[in-house]
């Protein structure tokens, strides 16, 4: 996740069940050439394993050079072949890079086209086809909103692990069995944890492992989105801060809690779920 899976956030996700994690997407050429970029955008620690380092690249030699730099500090190097953004098309990496028609799974157009929200869902049947065709480990990615989706995806695809990205930004405790209100089921109880608690944990990790403030600001917005909708004046105060400090952010979380309307995260019966399904692991990407 660009700017969103930096070291403090990875460590928070690991604390709540993620068994491996990806760095943000790094630009292989800039990473190879620019020491300041490397220092600012790639940090790790001895507890940050297993670790995937992800690069965008369109030149194999430059990718190899970047990979050699991170080799002592990671377990895997990943090349981004899935980014659909315009900047990826301009740079000839991500989804547009190396994607001739012969490399794609053909999908016939149905006569009755599904609604847009259905069309953008991940195709687990396609993931299953890839898994059935290969002898190497396959990690499934897409449509993971809670642990129920993790189990369903593993059962459907036979994949060796499951990735989650956007859902973790809102709920970094997903892999520990916690659900947001949106996905709460009848038997779920208050898990004794909420997103404000997670923000406090995240801020403490940022103090331990410093990262650019733009990343901190982004995570605070995403984790506290529901809280800010209840108290938009606090969000406006955050947006008005041109320069953030940890003291100010901790005070902001305290004020949010004092305003009331706590939004808990939920677990089945309020108890922890196991994070393994059929011997397969869950990951953060």
UniProtKB/TrEMBL annotation:
<dbReference type="GO" id="GO:0017150">
    <property type="term" value="F:tRNA dihydrouridine synthase activity"/>
</dbReference>
<dbReference type="Pfam" id="PF01207">
    <property type="entry name" value="Dus"/>
</dbReference>
<dbReference type="InterPro" id="IPR001269">
    <property type="entry name" value="DUS_fam"/>
</dbReference>
<feature type="domain" description="DUS-like FMN-binding">
    <location>
        <begin position="118"/>
        <end position="244"/>
    </location>
</feature>
<keyword id="KW-0520">NAD</keyword>
<keyword id="KW-0560">Oxidoreductase</keyword>
<keyword id="KW-0547">Nucleotide-binding</keyword>
<feature type="domain" description="DUS-like FMN-binding">
    <location>
        <begin position="1"/>
        <end position="94"/>
    </location>
</feature>
<dbReference type="GO" id="GO:0050660">
    <property type="term" value="F:flavin adenine dinucleotide binding"/>
</dbReference>
<comment type="similarity">
    <text>Belongs to the dus family.</text>
</comment>
<dbReference type="InterPro" id="IPR013785">
    <property type="entry name" value="Aldolase_TIM"/>
</dbReference>
<keyword id="KW-0288">FMN</keyword>
<dbReference type="InterPro" id="IPR035587">
    <property type="entry name" value="DUS-like_FMN-bd"/>
</dbReference>
<feature type="active site" description="Proton donor">
    <location>
        <position position="83"/>
    </location>
</feature>
<feature type="binding site">
    <location>
        <position position="54"/>
    </location>
    <ligand>
        <name>FMN</name>
    </ligand>
</feature>
<keyword id="KW-0521">NADP</keyword>
<keyword id="KW-0819">tRNA processing</keyword>
<protein>
    <recommendedName>
        <fullName>tRNA-dihydrouridine synthase</fullName>
        <ecNumber>1.3.1.-</ecNumber>
    </recommendedName>
</protein>
<comment type="function">
    <text>Catalyzes the synthesis of dihydrouridine, a modified base found in the D-loop of most tRNAs.</text>
</comment>
<keyword id="KW-0285">Flavoprotein</keyword>
